[in-house]
Amino acid sequence: MTSHTLDTEAAWDLILQAEDRAGVTLALPGSDEPALEVSGNGEWHLLQPAKEEALALLEMFLPLCQPRAAGAAQHVIGQLGQSLDGRIATATGHSRFINGEDGIVHLHRIRALSDAVVVGAGTAATDNPRLTVRCARGSNPVRVIIDRNRRVPDSHHLFTDGEAPTLRLVAGDYTPGNAHYDGQNTVTEIPCLGSGSEPADPELILKVLADFDLRKIFIEGGGLTVSKFLQAGLLDRLHVMVAPMIIGSGRPAFSLPEIDFLDDALRPASRFVNLGSDMLFDLDFSVALPAN
Ligand SMILES: NC(=O)c1ccc[n+]([C@@H]2O[C@H](COP(=O)([O-])OP(=O)(O)OC[C@H]3O[C@@H](n4cnc5c(N)ncnc54)[C@H](OP(=O)(O)O)[C@@H]3O)[C@@H](O)[C@H]2O)c1
C-alpha cells in the first residue's frame, strides 16, 4: 500500500492507539504500513506525510498519551471555554454553547485521553452534564464531582445514567481504603473535602484520585475549580478555547488573588491552534520560561 497524507481522523486513530504505549510502531487500521513511531521517552516520529491540522493534533495530544506508571506524578490538564471578554457563562449560568462544534470535539478528545474528568458542584448542578465521550472516538473517563455539600441533585445524569464510573467527593475526613470503588458504572461517595468553609486543598483531591489509580486528570470546569488548581500550581497544561463572542457580563473564567504588578502575572509557554470555530491557547506550565 502507498503512503497517503494523514488527515485529522487518521491522526486521531494513531493517537488513540498510542495511549499508554511507548516503544511501538503504529499503523492505520487495514494497513501494514508504519505510520507513527512512539519512543520510550515520549518522542515520536511520523512516518507518513500529514495535513497541517493532523500534525497540530498529533503535537497537541501525543504528549498526553505517555504511560504514567503507578507512583509517578499525575498529569493534570485544565480547560476553559470562554468568550473574548473572559466569561464562561452568563450571570445566570448559561454556557451552552460558548464554543463552536470544533471546540466541543476538542473537549471530548481531552476527555477520551483522560483517566478522570473533574468538575465543581457549580457546573454539575447548573449544566446537568454527562461528561462522557460522544463527539469523538474513545472511552469515557471516570467522572469526579467536587460536591462537599451534596448540592448537585441526585436526579442529575451523572448519578443516574450509569454511563461511566462516578466519584462524588463530599465533606468529611479522608481515610485511604475506606471508599470501595469497583470500576463499574456506579456512584461512589468519598468523604475527603473536610468540613470547614474554606476550599479543600486541590493537592488532596489529586492524592485521592491517585489512590484510585487515576493518573491523567482533566479539570473541565468551571472557573472556580480550574482557578483553584491553577493557583495551587497543579496544572501541567491549560487549554483555553476562546470563542469570537462578547457576553459583556457573567461568570469569569479565572478567579485568582489580586496582583499589583504585571511581573507577577502568569505567562506560561503557549501555542495557538486555530480549531476552526474557536482559537485554542495551549498553555504549558511544565516548561520554565527564561527570565526577561
Ligand atoms: N465554558 C466552559 O468551559 C465551562 C466549563 C464548565 C462550567 N461552565 C459554567 O461555569 C459555571 C459554573 O462555574 P463556577 O466557576 O461558578 O463553579 P464550579 O467551578 O463549577 O464549581 C465551584 C464549586 O465546586 C466546589 N468546589 C470546587 N473546588 C473545590 C475545592 N477545592 N474544595 C471544595 N469545594 C470545591 C464548591 O462547591 P460548594 O460551593 O458547594 O462548596 C464550589 O463553589 C456554570 O454556569 C457552567 O455552565 C463553563
UniProtKB/TrEMBL annotation:
Pathway: Cofactor biosynthesis; riboflavin biosynthesis. It holds the Pfam family RibD_C. One of its GO terms (molecular function) is 5-amino-6-(5-phosphoribosylamino)uracil reductase activity. Residues 75-260 form the Bacterial bifunctional deaminase-reductase C-terminal domain. Keywords: NADP, Oxidoreductase. One of its GO terms (biological process) is riboflavin biosynthetic process. It comes from the Bacteria. Transmembrane segments: none annotated. PANTHER family: 2,5-DIAMINO-6-RIBOSYLAMINO-4(3H)-PYRIMIDINONE 5'-PHOSPHATE REDUCTASE, DIHYDROFOLATE REDUCTASE FAMILY PROTEIN (AFU_ORTHOLOGUE AFUA_8G06820). This is Riboflavin-specific deaminase C-terminal domain-containing protein. It comes from Marinobacter antarcticus.
